[in-house]
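Why do we bother with holo predictions? Because pocket geometry can differ from the apo form. Keep that in mind while you read this record for flavin mononucleotide.
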Amino acid sequence: MSPRILVIAGSLRAGSHNRRLAAEATRLLAQRTTDVSVLDLADHALPIFDADMEAADGLPAAAIQLAERIEAQDGLLLVSPEYNASVSPLLKNAIDWASRVRKVKGRPVQPFKDLVVGLAAASPGRLGGLRGLQALRAVCQSLGAEVLTAQVTLADAGNAFDEDDHLTDDHARLSLERLVEALHEHSQALGRHTP
Ligand SMILES: Cc1cc2nc3c(=O)[nH]c(=O)nc-3n(C[C@H](O)[C@H](O)[C@H](O)COP(=O)(O)O)c2cc1C
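The structure, written out:
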């Protein structure tokens, strides 16, 4: 059975390098599994996490939906920009909210526990978002995810894609293919939902 894999980009920006990299990864994943989908964080708008808000109003519906969707996966690919050497606030806030969800429809859930996670980043800079991925790796591991050692850092991202949004550099494409292959293999082998 195909592993179920979700792709999330950590930027909402029109023309985002990370959204383009996520789209390229999704195309490569679709060649390997029939069960790949994309979650757009624009469809899960969440306020900045505030424990008083959670105590007063409970969890927002968007947080529960996000957690439920993540919990249903064998694998997750996060493609995120680096902001000031750390995780994109959009993605960190979404993860923080999802990590607060303990039950969905009365069923106990741990959205990130034993989830196979692949990481990628694109940046106009020379490090390709490497430091952001180090921070993101620690976040995911703290939640019990199995984060793959292989990762992609795409430097000089403004010049990395052609007009059809495909990667132009063979090395970058190979690196993404290796990550996608590892995510597919490990999601199938360790998959939480794959028999
Ligand atoms: C507040 C802020 C901080 C940033 N910090 C970093 C950084 O530490 N490292 C880096 O490579 N790029 C940094 N950038 C540049 C982003 O990588 C760049 O804006 C990128 O295009 C954002 O991703 P996107 O194209 O997917 O929207 C920063 C940008 C902003 C607005």
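Residues 170-190 form the longest helix (21 residues).
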